[in-house]
Amino acid sequence: MINSKEYAEYVSTHTQKSCEWKTLPIAFVVGGLICCIGQAFADLYTYLLPTWEKADIGALVSMTMIFLGGFFTGLGLYDKLGAVAGAGSIIPITGFANSIVSPAMEFRKEGIIFGTMAKMFVVAGPIIVSGVTSSAIVGIVYYIVGKV
Amino acid sequence: MDIFLTYLQVFGCGGLVCLVGQLLINKTKMTSARILVTFLLIGVVLEAVGLFDKIENFAHAGITIPIIGFGSNLVKGAIKGAKIGLLQATTYGLAAVSAGLTCAIFFGFLFALIFKSHSKKM
């Protein structure tokens, strides 16, 4: 006989293992597929707009992916995907859109100003703050290095 | 056949990035905000040391579509601005990602008005 503590340990180690193994390939496939969709849009825009610069095409692709991520979040499908795909749906730029649209919708009941507008940055806020701060630091360092 | 190979690289690299992210979630129980910040900073570092373009040449959208590409774009703009002046070194980063950021905020607000929240039903 094993006591309840040992049993709890046994259960936790074994259930965790099966979960972890399952999530990895799903995250890989979903993440890979979302990137392929992005590549498809990049190829399409390069074909349709041959005069555009590469950076502009990239911006247009991110806008498209953000729109799609936001749209499917609105329909409630993206969160269902996220429950299965984990990081596969979080890390692509569509996940960034999801992190803005999802709280914006959820806190709608708290009002437009203090609900939607304020809470929409619950997850995206740290991303924007860390990104803008670090990019400004890198820019200043490059400026100083360039002057020396 | 060339196109097939490109998409295979995109799929493999994009998948690999997400696999590493999932591994981090599984091992450290990180929340999605932390994961996103971590990968954004990876992008910032990769771009700052000049490695990002080399990876992009191989991985294409496999590295630009993950949030790593967002971080790299920020820094790409900042480095571009640093060649002009100190003011531009601080402002060009945000300008480089303004399209994506505006889009995310605009649609975030719009969709919040159009769609009803689904989380209550679950």
Architecture blueprint of SSEs:
The complex is a heterodimer of chains A (148) and B (122).
Chain A: H1 4-48, H2 54-74, H3 77-85, H4 87-90, H5 93-106, H6 112-119, H7 124-147
Helix pairs in contact in A: 1-2, 2-5, 5-6
Chain B: H1 2-28, H2 32-48, H3 52-59, H4 61-64, H5 67-82, H6 86-96, H7 98-114
Helix pairs in contact in B: 2-5, 5-6
Describe the protein.
The complex is a heterodimer of chains A (148) and B (122). Chain A is mostly helical and 148 residues long. Chain A contains 7 helices and no strands. In chain A, α1 (4-48) packs across α2 (54-74) and α5 runs antiparallel to α6. Chain A starts with a helix and ends with a helix. The mean pLDDT of chain A is 90. Chain B has one domain (2-114). The N and C termini of chain B lie far apart (45 Å). The interface between A and B is large, with 73 and 79 residues.
Short descriptors:
heterodimer, A: mainly alpha, extended, B: 122 residues, mainly alpha
Short description:
Chain A is mostly helical. Chain A is built from seven helices and no strands.
Bin the helical content of chain B: over 70%
For the largest beta-sheet of chain B, the strand count, sense and barrel status come to:
none
Major sheet of chain A: none
Could you give the order of the helices and strands of chain B? Answer: HHHHHHH
> Which geometry of chain B do the CA atoms define?
globular
- Approximate helicity band of chain A: over 70%
The greatest interface here is: A-B, 73 and 79 residues
Low-confidence stretches of chain B: none
The tally of structural domains of chain B comes to: 1
Order of helices and strands of chain A: HHHHHHH
**Principal-axes shape call of chain A:** extended
End-to-end separation of chain A in angstroms reads: 73 Å
Quote the average pLDDT of chain B.
Answer: 91
> Approximately what portion of the residues of chain A adopt beta-strand conformation?
under 5%
Helix vs. strand class of chain A: mainly alpha
Secondary-structure content class of chain B: mainly alpha
* Proportion of residues in extended strands of chain B: under 5%
Tally of discrete structural domains of chain A? 1
Q: Could you tell me the number of beta strands of chain B? A: 0
What's the multimeric state?
heterodimer
Mean pLDDT of chain A: 90
